[in-house]
Amino acid sequence: MVVVRPENPHQARLLRLLRDDGPRSRAELGDAVDLARSRLAGELDRLIERGLVENAGPAASRGGRRSPLLRVAGSVRFIGVTVAPDRIDLALTDGELNVLARTGEPADVRGGPEAIVTRVVELIGKLRAEAGVDRLTGVGVGLPAPVAFAEGMPVSPPALPGWHRFPVREALAAELGCPVLVDNDANVMALGEKHAGTGRAFEDFLYVKLGSAIGCGLVLGGTVYRGATSGAGDIAHLRLADDGPPCGCGESGCVEAYCGDAALVREATAAARSGRSGPLADRLAEAGGLTVTDVARAATGGDTSAQAMVRAAARRLGQTLVGLVSFFNPGIVIIGGVVPGIGPVLLAEIRGVVYRRSAPLATGNMPIVLSDLDDRAGVVGAARLISDHLLTP
10 Å Cβ neighbour count for 57? Predict the structure, then answer.
């Protein structure tokens, strides 16, 4: 495996500037870094020689002869992968992490990690063939699980039965012949927000991921904070009540047991069978089962029972965020993974609880917003994950 990386911190900083801000002239790069002109020229020439940077046409004139724009080389290509309990999604990006192509399909992680890894490799091969990419620079992967980051493997993951300590990173790297990094999906999505979403304007923020598996990515000083053993942000199984509903982790009263997709479906099924919700009862009779999308449709259609379920889950999530906000003091809270249609109701309830119960100093200027990246946060963040790793000396 041949990996071409920057040779020193100056080259790494120049590469990250080009990745994050797009093509820039030598003069603009000189304005952004504290390097003597001769040293700057030498480092840029070296990056060009190593195939990491290339010319991108003439820059705007600054009063003299126009110098060429520089950009991350077109040969730099990343793959971002997100695995959900029921789906795989992939994106091919350029060196600036612009998405060039995407693919994805339903999947069942209960079939085991070997089957999912094999299918991920096949889908990557499909993307590469369609885009004409001979060599990948690196691959980033987000899993709905606690991940030992240094080892690249999930640890006791409730959402991934049978995956405990499976070497996902090593298995993929061996098949693909390029560097691979694996992280918790909430961390990966937080990176996506930092690169291309609302989080771009903030150095300190919380990203809360809803869905079948709940998680939280903590960005501190512009960098994901993982904690001493990569366990930071694992809020899904914080206990809200000793006598609460059972959770997939084997405990009861967890945040995920109240706020996850399975919890909403459980409540919706009970409401349908008891006659409290006509629309959900009709849907249950028609389909034989309910999904969180059915709950969202009923809520947006005016069903008061479904709306009450969404508000109750949002209040529980708000209670969890009160402690996080008071302790972490983020600049913004971004919530992703929200089923289309219920965002306004969910957000109103969460804001009400957090702003009412958190310390005024922590929430005085702190927005709570929905992610505007939709499902791009994960794949862009996974590409950013491996990019950050490779764009270091």
Answer: 10
The bridge status of strand 153-154 relative to strand 99-106 is: unpaired
Tokens of 149: 């980051």
Name the 3-class secondary structure at 147: strand
The tokens 């862009």 sit on which residue? 380
Cα distances (Å, whole numbers) of residue 270 to 274, 300, 309, 360: 6, 19, 11, 39
- Tell me the CB-side half-sphere exposure of residue 183, using CA atoms within 13 A: 32
DSSP class per residue in 150-219: TTTEE-S-TTSTT-TT--HHHHHHHHHSS-EEEEEHHHHHHHHHHHHSGGGG-SSEEEEE-SSS-EEEEE
Contact 107, 116 (CB under 8 A): yes
pLDDT in tens, the chain (393 residues): 667 799 999 999 999 999 999 999 998 998 899 889 999 999 999 999 999 999 987 766 555 566 789 999 999 999 999 999 999 999 999 999 999 999 999 999 999 999 999 999 999 999 999 999 999 999 999 999 999 999 999 999 999 999 999 999 999 999 999 999 999 999 999 999 999 999 999 999 999 999 989 999 999 999 999 999 999 999 999 999 989 999 988 899 999 999 999 999 999 999 999 999 999 999 999 999 999 999 999 999 999 999 999 999 999 999 999 999 999 999 999 999 999 989 999 999 999 999 999 988 888 889 999 999 988 999 999 999 999 999 988
CB–CB of 92/100 below 8 Å? yes
At 83 the three-state DSSP class reads: strand
DSSP three-state, residue 50? coil
Q: Is the dihedral of CA 330, 375, 76, 120 positive or negative?
A: positive
How far is Cα 216 from Cα 259, in angstroms, rounded to an integer?
13
Identify the H or E element spanning 24.
strand 24-25
How far apart are the C-alpha atoms of 143 and 159, rounded to whole Å? 9
Give the angle subtended at the CA of 250 by the CAs of 143 and 241, to the nearest 5°. 105
